[in-house]
Amino acid sequence: MADFHSELAPRPAAETVPGTPSVLVETYGCQMNVYDSQAIEGILAPAGFSQSRDELEADVILLNTCSVRDLAEQKIFSRVGEIRHRRRDAGREQPVIGICGCMAERLGDRLRKGPSGVDIVVGVDNYETLPGVLQQVLASQGRRPHAVVGHRDEAHYVAPPALYPTNNSHLVTIHKGCDYKCTYCIVPSTRGPQREKDPETIAQEIRTIVAAGGREVTLLGQNVTAYNWNGQMDFAALLQVVAEQPGLERIRFLTGHPRDMHPHLMDVIGTLDTVCPWLHIPIQSGNDRVLKRMKRLYTSEDYLRMAEYARKVIPEVTFSSDFIVGFPGETNAEFEDTLEILRAVKYDQIFSFKYSERPGVPAAKLRDDVPLAEKKERLARLNALQEEIWEEEAAALHGQTWTAVAETPARKPAGAWRLRTANNRKVVVAGAQIEQGDALRVRITGHSNTTFLGEPSAE
Ligand code: 5AD
Ligand code: SF4
């Protein structure tokens, strides 16, 4: 799943309650982790922990981590060192440092050893143990460390809506894990097999969100389109259940797999008014030999056929995608097939990554033979072409009038707001009295990268 983290709104101020241990939760990686961090805060609050946003003050710092690429993990090791240094320099006692999320699952007890060793390690299916583990560690002399990892099928968390960030979209995880076996990917081992959250739990969670004032949800999972509750309810049917929830105005979802994008699902997306016409469906590569060795289970032609059908049945649909460049053995000519995909699909946005070998995944048996300089060059070419294509696409949209919903005040110009259309286009609008959640008609006057500029329109 792509990392849309930077697009999230700022979090509400923390409520530190004197006399209770305070916890700072830092989130890295994808939205699954954003949601899990909210769930962690929801588990800790009733157990007598308060929230902190201050790395120098917090009694406990939990890093909710990502393992998808080596760089993501290196960042965490440096962050642990940085926290220890800053506390030492400030003359403060060291906090209890904990690792949650994918790194906890991948590295387990090893994270407690060595110079950057942490105090606790709690994996993705064990967050309800956190209050007990923290109480024990905080009470023990010399901080006897703990590691609680391992997958449990029945562990599904429901984050309390009161702790959600105040942007329009409330995250709702609908399943965990992944049953695909893409050869480059660490997720099936860090998150375990795919396990669905019960549709009634999902519906109830959404009703709670609506009751708390929420109007939009983003259904989350590694492969939401593979949702299949007990073999009886697929993702299309779940979308219908979610769309029936009274008061809900917009439904987004992340991430889809091309293989699950059946015509029936696209028909349903196209027919349900509240399901947003934005498809984040990663293709990873445009070359069939590479796709085969990635075990992606589709060809570039299947993908293009899917996109063509989506355009036919989903009005105003837009696309975004993830790409990996420099997969083992990828030749320059094979990489150029990926460029062809950009030309054919015309994505609104792409998220592109250099292949990073993950220990123990099937692709680790292949030689990581594309030199780093070549990977960097392919990444730059991919992004440059996307920019060129997007510039032309975006310019052609100037003058159109769209409906967009206000999310947050924009950084500039003063008084402006950031809005989002149903098909996930961002628009900054100034010169109007706007409140969060307002739906406005806006005329597009310009753009800068993937953000459009607009003005209120009477049309
Ligand atoms: N190396 C580089 N990118 C990866 N991704 C997943 N695994 C790897 C890896 N080993 C990318 C894919 C996925 C996104 C979340 O991260 O593009 O869709
Ligand atoms: Fe990883 Fe592939 Fe599963 Fe996505 S579908 S989480 S890339 S194994």
Tell me what the structure shows.
By secondary structure, the chain is an alpha/beta fold. The chain has three domains: 5-148, 3-Layer(aba) Sandwich (Rossmann fold), CATH 3.40.50; 194-395, pyruvate-formate lyase- activating enzyme; 401-456, Beta Barrel (OB fold (Dihydrolipoamide Acetyltransferase, E2P)), CATH 2.40.50.140. The chain is 31% helix and 22% strand. The protein is built from twelve helices and 21 strands. The strands form six sheets. It has a six-stranded parallel beta sheet, with helices on both faces. α8 (263-271) packs parallel to α10 (300-313). Residues 2-13 have low confidence and may be disordered. Iron/sulfur cluster (SF4) binds at residues 178, 180, 182, 185, 187-188, 222-223, 257. 5'-deoxyadenosine binds at residues 1-2, 68-69, 184-185, 282, 284, 322, 324, 353, 355-356, 358.
